[in-house]
Amino acid sequence: MNNDINSSVESLNSACNMQSDTDTAPLLEDGQHASNQGAASSSRGQPQASPRQKMQRSQPVHILRRLQEEDQQLRTASLPAIPNPFPELTGAAPGSPPSVAPSSLPPPPSQPPAKHFPPGFQLSKLTRPGLWTKTTARFSKKQPKNQCPTDTVNPVARMPTSQMEKLRLRKDVKVFSEDGTSKVVEILTDMTARDLCQLLVYKSHCVDDNSWTLVEHHPQLGLERCLEDHEIVVQVESTMPSESKFLFRKNYAKYEFFKNPVNFFPDQMVNWCQQSNGGQAQLLQNFLNTSSCPEIQGFLQVKEVGRKSWKKLYVCLRRSGLYYSTKGTSKEPRHLQLLADLEESSIFYLIAGKKQYNAPNEHGMCIKPNKAKTEMKELRLLCAEDEQIRTCWMTAFRLLKYGMLLYQNYRIPQRKGLPPPFNAPMRSVSENSLVAMDFSGQIGRVIDNPAEAQSAALEEGHAWRKRSTRMNILSSQSPLHPSTLNAVIHRTQHWFHGRISREESHRIIKQQGLVDGLFLLRDSQSNPKAFVLTLCHHQKIKNFQILPCEDDGQTFFTLDDGNTKFSDLIQLVDFYQLNKGVLPCKLKHHCIRVAL
User: Fold this and answer.
1) What would the DSSP string read from start to end of 418-485?
2) Quick one: which of 123, 396, 113 has its CA closest to 271?
3) d(Cα 154, Cα 485) in Å, to the nearest integer?
4) Residue from 340, 459, 463, 319 nearest 402 by CA
5) Out of 34, 99, 223, 585, which residue is the most buried by the measure of CB atoms under 10 Å away?
6) In sequence order, what are the residues at sequence separation of 6 or more whose Cβ sits closer than 8 angstroms to the Cβ of residue 539?
7) DSSP assigned state of 97
């Protein structure tokens, strides 16, 4: 009986071996197995199979599959495509592709759905050959478990879509500077305006004092606005027409209302739903607190839709939107009509409203919907009486729309996740970092008395004059005369803007923020030998002429009719950064143009 069982097992084993040879052999075009033509092919000069190949052909199907899976695991994604290791199973020469057309392959059973990647994604070109097994007289590619049915083996393809977008999806953004130069920057799709500004500051090697901003400029509409630091650049660009562009510019007044809100919101223009003590902290808290109901009210010139005429209306700004009254100054609900919505709109400056839109003056603003194609009838054009009133309306619009986001941008100017060069921005010269010092004794001391500080400043000015005179005497034999050098050395400074007009200098001051101490120097148009200091104080722009004067055969520059003299304009600017002298305030910020 045992002999019968052993013989039955041996016969079953031999039958399995014979069946495996038949099963694992591929079908040819005539429907016969390749093993049936082995003798014929060998007689035609085909190479004989190696002992290892013979041993693999003699193994059962499940052993072959296990060997194939082990070979599959040993392969790495960094290796190039490897040809089929069992060419004799397909009847083809080593290194040649299988003879079965891919179109004849049936879809693998129960395989996961194919992943769809966003446009613009490029998967890795590293390929991994599949394993071929027989399925009912046809061949199909065997997909490893938990893998997308593709020939790629990129680990990023197995990541969630959100992570893959952060790693893969990038976009080129073109940014222009004030002098017309531009730079194309590759950014991530989730990069904010503040991050892009810091990147441009780093690439341009300029000083970062947290006052740089990205400007959305529409030349055909005559509109522009500064992007908030938290806004996503790619999202804003998707709503811009093709002719619009981004500008890289300074804006010192971006968060000035957090430092001195009383100057931005006059009492007659602010109405509170509850009693307020009028302090600066309470004023900001009422604007930032969503439960409070601040309201900005006053008269504005509003352009009528479809007409060139403007009409004076009583307007009020609330959290729910901008309204105008149809009956005088009444604010009853039945007399208020919605003029614009805050959530789906942004407020812009009118660049040349008087020329382009026939505005009453140049203190215009526009509320534009946030969509790609905006028609002229959808623009809400407004005009204030002066610059202070326009600043009040635009600041209130930003506060009511963004609220605490603006305060967070003001308190935390640096974003996380930036490269190390961005983590330590340098500070520009400011009023808080400059104090009067006395070094006449053995150790220096800070001068607290204002009268003593002014006397020390005058003495320092005379010392500059003496040093300049001594330098001229010692260097009189030099081919480059010191007086010639003093006359041109200021042209290397960022605050000097050359031969520009009064209107152009005022435009630059307005663009970079109407804050106290913002200044620039330029050539005088009326006197070729003189210069002009353009200074902003209390949101008003003033001009001071710098005249040359001669003393003992040397040329000096003065602002106060010769009482304080300076050998060059650099000394003059340094002096008035420490002392206001005859100026209404000290020089604090200078207008700058950076070439990208």
Assistant:
1) --GGGSSPPPPP-GGG---EE-SSSS-EE---HHHHHHHHHHHHHHHHHHHHHHHHHTTTSSS-HHHH
2) 396
3) 63
4) 319
5) 223
6) 263, 387, 388, 391, 514
7) P
Integer Cα distance of 54 and 45 in angstroms: 18
Please give the span between the terminal C-alpha atoms of the chain, in angstroms, as a whole number. 96
154 C-beta neighbours (distance < 10 Å), count: 16
Residue 496 DSSP class: B
Distance CA 22, CA 135 (A): 13
State CA 456 to chain mean position distance: 46
Look up tokens 């002992």; give the residue: 51
The DSSP element (H or E) to which 594 belongs, if any, is none
Helix (H), strand (E) counts: the chain: 17, 23
Sheet of strand 554-558: strand arrangement? 565-566, 554-558, 540-551, 531-537, 518-523, 589-590
Quote the tokens at residue 225.
């606005």
For 496, the token pair is 């000097």
Cα 545 to Cα 547: distance, rounded to the nearest angstrom: 6
Of 181, 170, 254, 177, the closest CA to residue 217 belongs to 177
Query: How many CA atoms lie within 13 Å of 306's alpha carbon, on the beta-carbon side?
Result: 0
Q: How far apart are CA 347 and CA 370, in angstroms?
A: 10
Residue in 135, 131, 116 with CA at minimum distance from that of residue 84: 131
Asked if residue 98 lies in contact with residue 157, where contact means CB atoms within 8 angstroms, the answer is: no
Read off the tokens for 406: 């603006």
Encode 122-177 in three state secondary structure: CCCCCECCCEEEEECCEEEEECCCCCCCCCECCHHHHCCHHHHHHHHCEEEEEEEC
